[in-house]
Amino acid sequence: MALQRTLGKTLAGKYGEADMTSEEILATCPLFARVQGPSRERLLRMVQPKQFVKGQRIADDGQECPGVYVIGEGLVRIYKLSPNGKEHVLHLAGKRETFLEVASILGMNSPAFVEAIEDTTTILLPNDAFRRALQEDHQLCLQLLGGMAMRVKQFVHLLEDIVLRDAISRVARHLLNLSEQQGQTINLPSFKKHLASHLNLTSETLSRCLRQLIDGEVIETEEGGAIGVRNRAALEEVAEGMYPRL
Predict the structure, then answer these.
(1) Cα Rg for the chain, rounded, in angstroms?
(2) CB–CB of 199/162 below 8 Å?
(3) Which helix (H) or strand (E) holds 76?
(4) Which of 101, 130, 224, 230 has the fewest beta carbons under 10 Å from its own?
């Protein structure tokens, strides 16, 4: 097990953080955080480190699913293509998030395209070994149910945002969610069109909303294009549709 954990270390993070072991990645991933004891040890024995450069395609729509990926550092986009070639981003997955987990559990092919939009390090739970563990380890299945329930809750909230919130409220809500993961300084994707698609906005509308928040002194731009949360209370008000300051 000690050798497997050594092999399972990711590269140093792009923000200068210390290396994370496979165990740390699993322990802090919401999907697997509840998996304990022998079940976690079994997962750790099967992990394979995988690295992807910015712009690299990780999976194609309809391709055989290789397993469950957990992100140690970086960012990927999961997207679909319409018959006329238009892209729609279903999800932006970042540090400690998973992708292709549903396809692996159900034994399906990849339901969408997956592309790294930053240099990204991951660990892979290979499909055959992971599905065998699910068939043989009932405790693992029970522990995973809690993590899957949280994923469903996240997507319900995203759907609520798209249906019930206006554009600037959606942007504010997303910035709040990112700040919980990254802190007061938020790094947005280099291509804002991916974030705009994820929020069901045009790139122009996203830029206009960010400008309104900057002009209202709710957020501010920082070095390297990062976003700083200047007034969290005001950002929370905007997320709830109350923005008299703007």
Answers:
(1) 19
(2) yes
(3) strand 76-81
(4) 224
58-60-64-67 Cα dihedral, nearest 10 degrees: 30
To the nearest 5 percent, what fractions of the chain are helix, strand and coil? 45, 20, 35
pLDDT tens over the chain, length 246 residues: 443 444 344 333 343 444 678 889 998 898 998 899 999 999 999 999 999 999 999 999 999 999 999 999 999 999 999 888 888 888 889 888 999 999 999 999 999 999 999 999 999 999 999 999 999 999 999 989 887 877 777 667 666 666 667 889 889 988 988 888 777 788 877 667 778 877 888 888 989 999 999 999 999 988 777 888 999 999 989 988 876 555
**14-18 own/partner pairs: CB under 8 Å, 24+ apart:** 14/73, 14/74, 14/118, 14/119, 17/73
Q: Give the 3-state DSSP-derived string for 104-137, with helices as H, strands as E and coil as C.
A: HHHCCCCCCEEEECCCEEEEEEEHHHHHHHHHHC
Instruction: Check: CB of residue 44 under 8 Å from CB of residue 8.
Output: yes
CA dihedral 107, 109, 113, 116 (to 10 degrees): 50
pTM of the model: 0.68
The pair of structure tokens assigned to 15 is 């923000």
